[in-house]
Amino acid sequence: MGEVLIFIGCPQIPVQSALVLHIADFLQDAGHHPIVAANPSAKQLVKTSDPKGHYVKDYIDLDKTIGDLADGTVHYPLIISLIHNNAGLTYTATIAAVSPDSLLLSVLFGEHAYDIAEEVEYPTEKVVAPVTHNTRPLLTKLDEVLEWAVLKI
Q1: Terminal-residue alpha carbon distance, the chain
Q2: Distances (CA, A) of 102 to 10, 58, 62, 80, 144
Q3: Are 44 and 14 in contact (CB under 8 A)?
Q4: The pLDDT of residue 122 is above 80
């Protein structure tokens, strides 16, 4: 199967690293190769949570990834973006614009998740819950959407 991009930014909200590992595990079980595009801080937190690389083996730079998507150097059939602030929303809108052929999932979390979700104006499947420390309220819906998404690619 193919590569799937997990796109993450600022690691301010504690659940982000856990969500990345959960998604990566799901993708591996479905036969896909997860690649995490992250800023240095977010990358370090995920690597600290997965020191032996059981879930994520490949990391790439967030900004370079957008450039590579824009110039067509890379393509991912599925992009999963974790969003908890306006910067994450802006980055994801950019990804949507430069990767119109990719299936895009927007996972919105944090205490303002519903407000940020209302601002989404790009084509995406949204998974939304105002979680900060407990992933449980988000996982059932996330798993349902992931099952659907991996069948579409």
Answers
A1: 9
A2: 23, 20, 17, 10, 19
A3: no
A4: yes
Mean pLDDT of the chain: 96
Number of domains in the chain: 1
In the chain, count H helices and then E strands: 6, 6
CATH number, domain at 92? 3.40.50.10160
Residue type (1 letter), 123: P
Look at residues 87, 82, 62 and name the one whose alpha carbon lies nearest to residue 14: 82
> Is 117 in contact with 108 (CB distance < 8 Å)?
yes
Q: What is the per-residue burial (b if ≥16 Cβ within 10 Å, else e) of 6-37?
A: bbbbebebebbbbbbbbbbebbbeeebebbbb
Domain containing residue 121: 3-152
> pTM for this one?
0.96
Given a cut of 90, whether residue 21 has pLDDT beyond it is yes
| SS3 state at 25 | helix
